[in-house]
Design a protein that fits this description.
The complex is a heterodimer of chains A (427) and B (101).
Chain A (H helix, E strand, L loop, with lengths): L6 E10 L2 E2 L1 H10 L5 E2 L12 E2 L13 H5 L3 H16 L23 E6 L5 H14 L8 H4 L4 H10 L5 E2 L7 H14 L5 E8 L4 H9 L29 E9 H6 L6 E10 L12 H13 L9 E3 L6 H15 L7 E3 L2 H4 L6 H15 L1 E2 L15 E2 L5 E2 L4 E8 L3 E9 L4
Parallel strand pairs in A: 5-6, 5-7, 10-11, 10-15, 11-13
Antiparallel strand pairs in A: 1-2, 1-8, 1-9, 3-4, 7-8, 9-16, 12-14, 15-16
Helix pairs in contact in A: 3-6, 7-13, 10-11
Chain B lengths: L13 H11 L20 H15 L15 H11 L16
The chains are: A alpha/beta (427), B mainly alpha (101).
């Protein structure tokens, strides 16, 4: 059986609690600025958890035409902004007026360009807002745009419509593993020949009363209301749950030969993907992280690499007591003594947990780490939990040779997704 | 050529003008009473209903259903339905949305 075609990353786009753009994201990660602050999206005064990592001062009208803003929930707006940045960097946008409704592709066949853009909850604000209208003033007062603003696939759908992308297009949902699985799906689509380019990743805007109330009731969220900036503390002995975040992380995933033919420079290689289900419990990882262990091993095998080849892991690292311990055990089980030579970081320490978008923004961070040969620090690591026996970069960014990195995403429902990314200039 | 509604832009209800701008980014200069919603303003049937729901919230009354369903709807026709709902031309009955006093 012939080897699958090489697949690379040619564009990155992000909207994060550091603001719009990959540059703001990377700069914030290196400076280790906290982003958690009191919730402004709704009145959280009576909630047990009153803080989150919100995208600051996001004005959709500054980026998108009014009629597009009207028909989209915030999550799809984040996807549209991130997609435009990624496609622009990939050199795939035409000369059309970027304020227009449509900003077509140039330099590639749009029928061979797809979108796989994940979200955990999709248009949740749309759904809850229109539900309130229905309950208080009647079912005939629901706005018709609910039907296009709410559905989870509309991040990808609107990106495809705006840029004229008529290749394979759908959303992938696996809770907090969604965007990791979206990127894995993009890899598979290109390898099997259904597309040459896929805009993939995730978008989420779920800082919503119901989500916060539900996750808080489940004990999943940190309750450090008096000091939000120090609440997300992956691998730390005092961690007490994750901090909700929002935004979008998208990557232009492209067949290497296609990129080379049009003179596009790869930012990194998407070398492999491992995906499993724990088959154990809806919200707890399997003991010893056996599902994660399997996904890690499958990802390495898919990339035709060994444990000894890995330099860096962008961990799932949610700052929950269970995940961080189970993930650490899984990593040590797979890598053994080599674990001590792998620089680990958790992006969630900086921007919180972006849920269905986490795998996307964290893949963006991993590509940037490979490109700059720098691992950003994990914030708030003051005393590492002995159960988390990893080399977690903290206090300052670490400059170090990086050839191969992994990005882990694990989701409620037992979902495990591991991506293997390699430096573009790795020989 | 349509026989419905007023033609000067100045005759268009300010709520309608504001709604067209806020929802769809249309400027007052683009609006004429005989402008077809779909053909001239790129407002499909979904957008037309979205605008109607918004208008009804803005003015606090419900619009009666469009009478002439074969001709493409125009701004003037929408204006006429709004006038009727607000009792401005003496026709129609004011119907408040459920839940309002």
């Amino acid at each position: 059986m012939p080897a699958p075609p090489e697949v690379v990353i040619t564009g990155l786009g992000a909207v994060t609690p550091y603001g719009c753009g990959v540059a703001a994201f990377w700069e914030g990660l290196l400076a280790a600025r906290p982003t958690a602050s009191p919730i402004t999206r709704f009145d959280a005064a009576d909630f047990p958890v009153r803080f989150a990592c919100e995208v600051p001062a996001f004005d959709p009208f500054a980026h998108l035409p009014r009629r597009l803003v009207r028909q989209t929930d915030r999550f799809a707006q984040y996807a549209l902004v991130a997609a435009q940045e990624a496609l622009d960097q990939a050199g795939l946008l035409g000369d059309a007026d970027h304020a227009g409704i449509q900003v077509p592709i140039a330099g590639a066949d749009p029928q061979r360009i797809g979108t796989v853009i994940a979200s955990g909850a999709g248009g949740l604000e749309e759904m809850t807002g229109q539900f309130d209208r229905m309950r208080t003033i009647g079912p005939d007062r629901v706005r018709p745009y609910l039907s296009i603003a709410m559905p989870i696939n509309m991040g990808g759908g609107q990106v495809a419509i705006r840029h004229g992308l008529s290749g394979p297009s759908y959303a992938v949902v696996s809770a907090c593993a969604s965007a990791g699985d979206a990127l894995g799906s993009a890899l598979d689509l290109i390898r099997c020949g259904r597309a040459d380019v896929v805009v993939a990743g995730g978008a989420e805007a779920a800082i919503n009363p119901l989500t916060i109330a539900g996750f808080a009731a489940a004990g999943a969220l940190s309750r450090r209301n008096d000091d939000p900036g120090r609440a997300s503390r992956p691998f730390d002995v005092d961690r007490d749950g994750f901090v909700a975040g929002e935004g979008a992380g998208l990557l232009v995933v492209e067949r290497a030969g296609h990129a080379a033919a049009r003179g596009a420079r790869p930012l990194a290689t998407l070398a492999g993907y491992g995906v499993t289900n724990d088959a154990y419990h809806p919200s707890q990882p399997s003991p010893g992280g056996r599902g994660a262990i399997s996904a890690l091993r499958l990802a390495l095998a898919d990339a035709d690499l060994d444990a000894g080849d890995v330099d860096h892991i962008n961990a799932h690292g949610t700052s929950t007591p269970r995940n961080d311990a189970a993930e650490s055990a899984a990593i040590r089980s797979v890598f053994g003594a080599r674990t001590d030579e792998i620089a680990v970081t958790s992006t969630k320490s900086a921007i919180g947990h972006l849920l269905g978008a986490a795998g996307g923004v964290e893949a963006v961070a991993t590509v940037e780490a490979l490109r700059h040969a720098v691992v950003p620090p994990t914030q708030n690591l003051e005393e590492r939990d002995p159960a988390c026996h990893l080399d977690v970069v903290h206090d300052a960014p670490r400059t170090t040779r990086l050839a191969v990195a992994l990005s882990n995403s694990f989701g409620f429902g037992g979902h495990n997704a591991v991506l293997v990314l390699a430096a573009a200039d790795r020989s | 050529m349509t026989t419905q509604g007023p033609t000067p832009t100045a005759a268009l209800d300010p709520h309608l003008v504001r709604g067209l701008h806020e929802l769809f980014g249309l400027s007052a200069q683009e609006l004429r009473g005989d402008a077809e919603l779909e053909g001239d303003l790129q407002l499909d049937s979904l957008a037309a209903v979205e605008l109607q729901v918004w208008l009804e919230d803005a003015v606090g009354v419900r619009l009666a259903a469009a009478k002439n369903v074969t001709a493409p709807p125009t701004l003037g026709a929408l204006q006429a339905r709004l006038d009727a709902a607000l009792g401005r031309d003496g026709a129609g009955v004011k119907t408040a949305p459920k839940g309002s006093s």
